[in-house]
Amino acid sequence: MNTIVFHPESDPAAIQEAAAILRRGGLVGIPTETVYGLGADALNEDAVVRIFLAKGRPQDNPLIIHVPDASWLEQYCRDVPPEAYRLAERFWPGPLTMILPRRDIVPLQTTGGLETVGVRCPDHPVTLAIIRAAGVPIAAPSGNTSGRPSPTTAAHMIEDMDGKIDGIVDGGPCTVGVESTIIDLTVTPPRLLRPGGLPLEALEEVLGEVSVDKAVTGLLAAGEHPRAPGMKYRHYAPHAPVTVVTGASWACCRTRRGSSASTSMPRCMPGTSSIVWVRRRTNPPRPGTFSTHCAPSTARTSRKFSPSAPMTGAWVWRWPTA
């Protein structure tokens, strides 16, 4: 299969062409603010099956459907509570997925056999335009082989999906770099199923009490069915050895680099716990060969910068912020 790379910034026809592929049951890589997604018509069971095959994704791992705004909720979800609209008004478009009861029009293949479906509105103008042009919600897990790190540029997605899918839309680097936060609105109190680009504190400002699912801090038991992506199966597994160094940030740098901390080493935003994944060709790493991921501990947005250098090894710095 020849995978077409679309460049909507220079090709006015790119959005319509990508939408046409989706309407006829094809697979298209789409940019979002979180990560690149592997998109298909969420209502087309055959197309959805192709997502699982292309990724090597377990069939019981549900998919998130993407819509252009909250007015689409009633078409695909039943019993939408007022809290869903309050969250949408505050955080959509953005890195928030809501779990709601599905309507029959949404196939069980898409939901992993569940009677609920995850819905979100991505914060990327190109993908919003593609969804509107296609006229259907787009099921889109992260655009990587299952278990691998999620792609945050079109180049990353090409590494995993070239020749497996119909097209990839290059919308530039993702601005958040981690998957969406998932909140289950079918239970009381609402339950956090997966941490992501929107912190728990922001949800609590709108919803009040929010419980945290046991899968966030532990493993599901054998035979338990995941209610959302990211609850059961391995994520973020680079093909590289990883060393973890804990402690104060610059002390960690000194531990790795030698006698003095280098200003080339990354620092994350205040108020976050920090993880650095180093893509390197050299040892020690040089400027421009690392990527950073800031896990939000406050209401700040998390970001990941991912250079395209092949990941042949990785050092990970993890430190508490003062």
Any overview of this molecule?
The model is unreliable at 254-322 (pLDDT under 50). This protein has 10 helices and 16 strands. It has 322 residues and is of the alpha/beta class. β14 (290-296) and β15 form a beta hairpin. The chain has helices spanning 14-23, 45-55, 73-76, 82-91, 108-111, 125-134, 154-161, 200-207, 214-217, 249-257, and strands at residues 4-6, 28-30, 37-41, 64-66, 96-101, 116-120, 138-139, 167-169, 181-184, 191-194, 211-212, 242-246, 272-278, 290-296, 304-305, 314-319. The chain has an 11-stranded mixed beta sheet, sandwiched between helices. α1 (14-23) packs across α6.
Brief description of this entry?
The chain is an alpha/beta fold and 322 residues long. The protein has helices at residues 14-23, 45-55, 73-76, 82-91, 108-111, 125-134, 154-161, 200-207, 214-217, 249-257, and strands at residues 4-6, 28-30, 37-41, 64-66, 96-101, 116-120, 138-139, 167-169, 181-184, 191-194, 211-212, 242-246, 272-278, 290-296, 304-305, 314-319.
